[in-house]
From TrEMBL:
Belongs to the LDH2/MDH2 oxidoreductase family. InterPro entries: Mal/L-sulf/L-lact_DH-like_ah (IPR043144), Mal/L-sulf/L-lact_DH-like_NADP (IPR043143), Mal/L-sulfo/L-lacto_DH-like_sf (IPR036111), Malate/L-lactate_DH-like (IPR003767). The keyword Cytoplasm does not apply. Pfam families: Ldh_2 (PF02615). The lineage of its organism: Eukaryota, Metazoa, Chordata, Craniata, Vertebrata. One of its GO terms (molecular function) is oxidoreductase activity. This is Malate dehydrogenase. It comes from Cyclopterus lumpus. Keywords: Oxidoreductase.
Length: 362
């Protein structure tokens, strides 16, 4: 596999240039670029640079707003309802998470929901903002219907991710960031772009039959909930997806379930619902950080079934990916993704393009 090594500042600057070239405000472009680069840095390539052309198109077509800022419509000491004003998802997400943290400092908890939002990148980016304040953070979003519920044939739920971040001692943390589908759609798209097959159990075709062909999943098929079939617990993933919808579309008064626009069909505004929570452990039993560290060490410290594969906690694979990037001196991108985004940049008159001179093979 041929990959290009590109530094974080280079990718960040490239995304910002592409977004501002189609009229995005510079600070909005920066918010988007930061979350996309962080997604790649953490190894979630499905939610990073790979997504940039979608955001460019959203601004170009005017289906996503360039001007304005999110507005608080209703609030109490510990809650808020926010109108995202159809702005870029990361602009709405940062506004809401910072508001949740502010409320948690004052009231012990901040629970903020938004309607009128758009795709916001990795959910973990927002949950992790609470870690900087030594708080628990949570983030959820609904998405276009891509998941076929247990016993169903039609896509009526999104990938509806859940992220929970909890601080431990010495900068350590638990960071859960997961779709409630078996995988995120971006992973299927990435395999399709690379020409690879997908593992069994990621998605189904138009008839509801499991398939390893990403094209069949993307054209008329759908993703499967965590757990897969009913026999293997798929109804639990289906239930978690519904829970996210309760916190997002239903609580915020946004679009929900099959009422959300079809993925990548930008004929109308997305009006996604999102939820952001910050909890201050200081308002609860003392010693939270110590117990968190112990909880993490119990799992990591056990004898693994395979000595080559130690037991990890949520957030550990991402930390390992970041360490690898640091060692390489940049983020390794598949050459096809780089070429695809450079073509996108040329169409909107952006230069310089992403560099392809630092090639690594593995």
């Amino acid at each position: 596999m041929t990959r290009c090594l590109i530094s974080k500042p280079e990718v960040q600057g490239f995304i910002e240039r592409c977004m501002t070239s189609v009229g995005t405000k510079s600070h909005h472009a920066r918010s988007l670029a930061e979350v996309l680069v962080e997604g790649d840095h953490r190894g979630h390539y499905s939610h990073g640079l790979n997504r940039m052309d979608m955001y460019v198109k959203d601004i170009q077509t005017g289906i996503c707003a360039k001007d304005g800022e999110p507005v608080v419509e209703k609030e109490s000491a510990g809650t808020a309802l926010v109108d995202g004003k159809n702005l870029l998802g990361p602009v709405v997400g940062n506004f809401c998470m910072q508001l949740a943290i502010k409320k948690a400092k004052e009231a012990g908890i901040g629970w903020v929901v938004a309607h009128g939002s758009n795709h916001y990148g990795i959910a973990g980016y927002y949950a992790m903002q609470a870690l900087k304040e030594n708080m628990i953070g949570m983030s959820f979003t609904n998405t276009s219907p891509l998941v076929v519920p247990t016993r169903g044939k039609e896509c009526t739920l999104g990938t509806n991710p859940i992220s929970v971040a909890a601080p431990a001692k010495d900068g350590d943390s638990f960071v859960l960031d997961m779709a409630t589908s078996a995988v995120a759609l971006g992973k299927v798209e990435l395999h399709e772009r690379r020409g690879d097959t997908i593992p069994e159990g990621w998605g189904c075709d138009a008839e509801g039959t499991l398939t390893t062909d990403p094209k069949r999943v993307l054209s008329g098929g759908g993703l499967v909930p965590i757990g897969g079939s009913e026999a293997t617990g798929g109804y639990k993933g289906y239930g978690l997806g519904m829970m996210v919808e309760v916190f997002c579309g239903i609580l915020a008064g946004a679009q929900y379930s099959k009422h959300i626009r079809t993925w990548k069909v930008t004929d109308r505004v997305a009006n996604l619902g999102q939820c952001f929570v910050a909890i201050n452990p200081e308002n609860f039993a003392p010693g939270f950080g110590d117990r968190m560290s112990d909880l993490l060490s119990i799992q990591r410290g056990m004898e693994p079934a395979d000595p080559q594969h130690p037991v990890l906690a949520a957030g550990d694979p991402e930390r390992m990916n970041m360490k690898t990037c640091e060692g390489l001196g940049g983020i390794p991108y598949h050459i096809n993704v780089v070429n695809h985004m450079n073509e996108c940049a040329k169409r909107v008159g952006v230069s310089p393009l992403l560099p392809c001179d630092n090639v690594i093979s593995n």
